[in-house]
């Protein structure tokens, strides 16, 4: 997700979301920049790289994806861009009732962000996702389809941020 989209530091947000993943280790990191303006730095934490032949979110490996913002963004923009990317990556149309539920869940999870704020999402295979804003739990979404679609924004092979995906998965 262009709008949603740190090297390790012991900030509470990173520690909190990583604590959800047993044996989490740093897999990769990179920046998401558009026209020379970096929007955020992303880091991926997991017990091992979450790669399968399809997408990382089709695996049974939990992971945490942490985004530390370089610029302020409204929560409404984060949600709107996220839904747009989820729809773009979908292999078939997503029913409007599902999109509406996902939009509401994302509004609970994401507020406005400022420079230095950190959003962290935890992928829980077969369960859904958990989100933290600056170290505080902001939402838990018990919907595996949502979790796969949401984290696909960064990790699906068709992401708009291919270089960032490669870096997150441990490439250079």
From TrEMBL:
Residues 39-170 form the Chalcone isomerase domain. It comes from the Bacteria. This is Chalcone isomerase domain-containing protein.
């Amino acid at each position: 997700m262009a709008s949603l989209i740190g090297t390790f530091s012991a900030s509470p947000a990173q520690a909190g979301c990583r604590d959800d993943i047993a044996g989490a280790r740093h897999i990769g990191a990179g920046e998401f920049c558009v026209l020379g303006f970096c929007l955020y730095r992303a880091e991926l934490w997991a017990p091992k790289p979450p790669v399968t032949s399809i997408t990382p979110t089709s695996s049974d490996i939990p992971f945490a994806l942490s985004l530390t913002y370089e610029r302020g963004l409204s929560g409404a923009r984060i949600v709107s861009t996220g839904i747009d990317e989820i729809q773009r990556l979908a292999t078939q149309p997503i029913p409007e009732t599902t999109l509406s539920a996902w939009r509401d869940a994302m509004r609970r999870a994401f507020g406005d962000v400022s420079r230095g704020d950190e959003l962290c999402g935890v992928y829980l295979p077969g369960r859904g996702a958990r989100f933290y804003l600056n170290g505080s739990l902001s939402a838990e979404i018990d919907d595996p389809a949502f979790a796969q679609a949401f984290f696909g924004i960064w990790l699906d092979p068709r992401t708009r941020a291919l270089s960032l995906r490669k870096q997150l998965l441990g490439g250079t």
